[in-house]
Amino acid sequence: MKRLLLALLLPSLGILIASLAAGEWLTRPARVLIGPPPAGLNAQAVRIPYGDGQQVSGWFLPGRAGEGAVLLHGVRGNRLQMLERARWLQREGMGSLAVDLPSHGESSGERITFGRREALGVQAAQGWLRERLPGERLGAIGVSLGGASLLFAERRPELDALVLESVYPTITDAVKDRLTARLGPAGAWAAPLLLLQVPLRLGFSVQELRPLQAISTVRAPLVVASGTDDRSTRWVETEQLFAAAPEPKLLWPVPGAGHVDLHDFDTPGYRARLLPWLQSHLRKAPG
Q: Where in the numbering of this chain does the AB hydrolase-1 domain appear (predicted)?
């Protein structure tokens, strides 16, 4: 009887320990020392204060007057993830601000919160960019958690163009998808153990992590992009996110791409598709 009880308890205990370790890893800050901009890059290092002693670190790359500017940020990385996008946009005349989200890179923050508190840093970065470039039209590109943080942020005034790449619809979907991709059908059973940790570790409920609901507030022209083979944010979920957004909007499937950097996956295709759209919304007419 004792052996049977141990046989039942030990696997359960192992699953519990593994879920606690995963919860710690997923919310632990992804900090790294980045240093000054690379040699030859026309960029300025910035530290943008917000809240109670918090700050967002980034690089500002100036563009040409009237071409607009773009706020860039991704997930579990830092501004280096957006560097090639920033270089490309600068060559095309657009300014950009590539930032480390809160709890990423050189920015402050105690926990990764899947976009909810990162939104405060995004708001500060938006405000800084508007003050630096008064009169310019402003867009943003957010990847995965970075896109969620854009949706949770107060965009006042609203952006002139918004690109969301590989954004999860709800944290429940995100956790189930990722665990199922790694563990198979057992992942759906393990998901509740991770979701139960959200209020304990982060201080708010899973109901506050629903980009599917937040996207209804967008009033900017919108692109929703994702890979058709993405197992972390399944294509049907991207379609649901897109359906919840108001017009004007554009759905952009990237054939064969998983949960990867879409710019790196197909750089020529990415640029050919996105540049005319950004220019149409951010560029000011002559005169």
A: 70-264
